[in-house]
């Protein structure tokens, strides 16, 4: 009898602690966007021979090994085999960038590396080359759980991202949360609204007939609610990605994904 | 540069029906879209696909603007002889992209 009360108390305490440490947007039933797709689209993603996103990965592999820029060095020249050196990297991005004092996404890091180490001309946002390299690097983490860095310096940016996620914008006056937290699983027109976890970027979107980045997708949604979209590479989009990755923590990386 | 994904078995028994799947990286620009300043984007599609087995045509297809980017074709064939299965995609630009795969029939 005497042992029961403290045990109960400890249990309650643990429950409270778990409750308080969970981020605001934490979900009990986290599901990748792939779970909401048709069986045909899921099969397309699952088979590397029918997944058009694999073209970007193959292009990326070639770019990885190609010498670029003033000092004629390739990505492989420093990083070696991507299969080992880049394994798990995409699960930790966006990460804190010491130089700028801000979070940086995977494409941004590749651009930085190109500028400072290879001394090559910058690749524009959404250019096929940058998408291909990002897809190749992210592909090395396929099947690994998303594990955002627990870096204190990222906290304020992540909080900004959460605010952006919850802020109503545009003529339709909708926030990301209005659909992806409150109404996921329901339909918007003909399509099912997923939970909005960025698990498979860069991904092949059938609507685009091309591989695109998360930023392209976020801009699509902003235009969809008739808001003014942030420009590619805008700090707000990276903060939003930072929050989304925290929200998606634990889900597996699927790059290159296929989405309708 | 040709970027194609070919999925065909490496080995088959004689008389077996095998599935061959071929996908080519191509934008399949329809010619109906407009780009910046309302200027029409010229049509650029793959209009002909031919698959040959040891030089003999076993499957061909005409493609049209309604076919999505990265055309993907799956078809079946009866395995007869060992040799080369070759694929050729011809585009509006007049260029022919090729790929091939080897098969051993026992």
From TrEMBL, chain A:
Binds 2 heme groups per subunit. InterPro entries: Cyt_c-like_dom, Cyt_c-like_dom_sf, SoxA. Keywords: Electron transport, Heme, Iron, Metal-binding, Periplasm, Signal, Transferase, Transport. SUPFAM superfamilies: Cytochrome c (SSF46626). GO terms for molecular function: electron transfer activity; heme binding; metal ion binding; oxidoreductase activity, acting on a sulfur group of donors, cytochrome as acceptor; transferase activity. The keyword Transport applies. Its main location: periplasm. GO terms for biological process: sulfur oxidation. Residues 59-146, 161-252 form the Cytochrome c domain. Heme c 2 binds at residues 176, 179-180, 221. It is found in: Periplasm. The active site is at residue 221. Substrate binds at residue 217. It holds the Pfam family SoxA-TsdA_cyt-c. Heterodimer of SoxA and SoxX. Belongs to the SoxA family. This is SoxAX cytochrome complex subunit A.
From TrEMBL, chain B:
Residues 9-101 form the Sulphur oxidation protein SoxZ domain. It comes from the Bacteria. NCBIfam families: SoxZ_true. This is Sulfur-oxidizing protein SoxZ. The lineage of its organism: Bacteria, Pseudomonadati, Pseudomonadota, Alphaproteobacteria, Hyphomicrobiales.
């Amino acid at each position: 009898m005497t042992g029961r009360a403290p045990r109960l108390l400890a249990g309650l305490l643990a429950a409270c602690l778990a409750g308080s440490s969970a981020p605001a947007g934490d979900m009990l039933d986290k599901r990748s966007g792939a779970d909401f797709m048709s069986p045909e689209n899921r099969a397309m993603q699952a088979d590397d021979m029918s997944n058009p996103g694999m073209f970007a990965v193959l292009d990326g592999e070639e770019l990885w090994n190609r010498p670029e820029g003033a000092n004629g060095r390739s990505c492989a020249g420093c990083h070696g085999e991507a299969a080992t050196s880049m394994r798990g990297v995409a699960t930790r991005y966006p990460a804190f960038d010491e130089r700028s004092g801000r979070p940086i996404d995977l494409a941004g890091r590749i651009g930085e590396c190109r500028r400072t180490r290879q001394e090559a001309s910058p690749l524009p946002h959404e250019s096929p080359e940058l998408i291909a390299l990002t897809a190749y690097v992210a592909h090395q983490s396929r099947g690994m759980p998303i594990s955002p860095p627990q870096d204190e310096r990222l906290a304020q940016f992540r909080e900004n991202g959460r605010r952006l996620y919850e802020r109503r914008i545009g003529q339709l006056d909708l926030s990301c949360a209005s659909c992806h937290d409150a109404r996921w699983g329901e339909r918007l027109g003909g399509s099912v609204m997923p939970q909005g976890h960025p698990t498979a970027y860069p991904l092949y979107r059938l609507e685009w007939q091309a591989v695109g980045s998360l930023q392209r997708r976020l801009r699509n949604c902003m235009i969809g609610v008739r808001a003014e979209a942030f420009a590619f590479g805008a700090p707000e989009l990276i903060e939003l990605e930072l929050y989304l990755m925290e929200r998606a923590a634990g889900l597996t990386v699927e790059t290159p994904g296929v989405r309708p | 540069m040709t970027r194609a994904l070919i999925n065909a078995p490496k080995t088959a028994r004689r008389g077996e029906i095998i599935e061959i799947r071929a996908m080519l990286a191509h934008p399949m620009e329809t010619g109906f879209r407009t780009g910046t300043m309302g200027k029409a984007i010229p049509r650029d599609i793959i209009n002909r696909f031919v698959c040959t087995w040891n030089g003999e045509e076993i499957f061909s297809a005409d493609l049209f603007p309604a076919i999505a980017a990265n055309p993907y074709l799956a078809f079946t064939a009866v395995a007869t002889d060992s040799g080369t299965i070759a694929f050729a995609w011809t585009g509006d630009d007049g260029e022919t992209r090729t790929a091939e795969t080897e098969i051993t029939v026992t």
